[in-house]
Fold:
Amino acid sequence: MASNVGSPLLEIKDLELEFITEEGIVKALDGINITVKKGEIHGLIGETGCGKSVTSLATLGLLDNNARIRGGEILYRGINLLKLDENTLRKKIRGNEISMIFQNPSTSLNPVYNIGNQVRESILLYQTKDKMEASRLVLSELDRVKLPDPEDISTKYPHELSGGMKQRVMIAMMLACKSNLLIADEPTTALDVSIQAQFLKVLEELKESEDLSILYITHDMAVVSEICDVVTVMYGGQIAETAPVDVLFKNPSHPYAKGLIYSVPGVMQSIEDFETIPGTVPRLINPPTGCRFHPRCEVCR
Amino acid sequence: MNIVETENLKKFFDSKKGTVKAVNDVSINVIEGETLGVVGESGCGKTTLGRTILKLIEPTSGKVYFKGKDITSLKGEKLRRLRKDMNIVFQDPEGALNPQMTVYDHLDRPLKIHKIVDNEDEKLRRMIDILNTMGLKAEHLIRFPHELSGGQKQRVCIARALCLEPDFLVLDEPTSALDVSVQSKILKLLDKAKRKFNLSYMFISHNINLVRAISDRLAVMYLGKVVEIGDSSEIFHDPKHPYTKALFESVPVPDPDKKVKTPLTGDVPSPVNPPDHCAFANRCKDMDDTICNRENPDLIERYGRKIACHKYR
Structure:
């Protein structure tokens, strides 16, 4: 799996996305460009309305009916996902090539099947048809995400597991699907600090051993600095800045990225030092023209 | 002077699985004029503690003192009158505001109930003053909640809590539902309000980096008990209780050069039927089988703070 590390796996190019709503057209994405390379954990950060979640949903064709792609393409290994039909997306892309995990793993796990059954389903689809071999692989995938006592876990039902364990089961399922790209949308937001630390360690280890590529969506800057290699900052449906993680934290260029970094507790040690960005995030029905941050930007004014 | 003090405070809930000992013998104090940060993971009891202190929940046993007076058994009209001196701001501003009431209505109600001002002009002046303190304008008085952003809604909630000029506020995750840039604004406003109105805060949060930036003293809770309490910067600089140490090591810091450790394995324990000995014993690196699995450690003074750990007995 060590080949092609560093080559582009996912390329979002000039993507424009709108939502048709009763109040008007919401211009959710205004020509965005993001590249996730093989073996890279790419953080996608931004605040409410920046478009980070819809970007991931657009990638997997999971947007609501009122969404319209107005331009651009989403290339996965060179294939434009936006041109694929639903059947191909479902059979070849979702789960198999690209997996997605969300904030609340309970909504992704079937409450009436035990864990072993659910992981086995993915293995039988993507790894082997042999049932004995599949059962063995279930235990090995559960072990890979450092779940204690995989045999016991595989007999349990989702409601018997804690949030952190369920989230690790989701990673095990992703591994079982042999996905190449994981899109994680706020996977640790609902987890306690100590559980989050365990989960992040699992991801870090898998990145080393499997060259896992992850598009990691979050609002938590501390988590970003913990595991991401590269970070893209979004604002109001546009890209503000993309930079390697240490560059972004030590020397942010874009005024919004700067304002964001300097309002994070931990970067700033006391209230007096907190920076604040004047104004509020714009509504995207009639967004500001040009750079959508300009009404709040100290450099511009 | 202690604005708030608890003595062996307990709050238990009955459930099908057993007794949930949410707050399990907590003796804590909030010094006048300070921000006491309260941190801990799920099930530690920090939210229940805040609400029990305010008597939003009735204590099971133990005592609560407010400005030196025993308020544990207060009921009815006497308790209601206390509400103008001690108040709360919740995590979710959406749920705390009535969608059918304007900002004016929200501020008017507590003023009317407590008969603070009967003169309409004076009332309006006070409302506008509080809104301005929170960075809002007079024109916001006629808005409904759905016309406000998340940050603005939370500012209205804080303004509402402040318009009675209380002495003590419990802030229960007041910025957790807000964006980071909005959060920093709200925290600055809370700081400004604290100095302007001579307030004392109990600031409950799961965000350890945040609490570090704003608290004077810190209380760390684990499974219904306080395990360490003292000066905030001293505890952050040199945590003594094994849980506090492990907890701080698990917190990601927004610095790419610093990585978390995972000293805490396993899951956060449940407060249902907790053990009669140190609840942290089964996860503690310094566990001493001769005592840690047999007795609960008392909260005792050591190193200028209080620690509940047999290691320091």
About this structure: Residues 193-210 of chain A form the longest helix (18 residues). The domain at 8-97+180-296 of chain A is CATH 3.40.50.300 (Rossmann fold). Chain A is about 35% helix and 25% strand. Chain A has a mean pLDDT of 90.
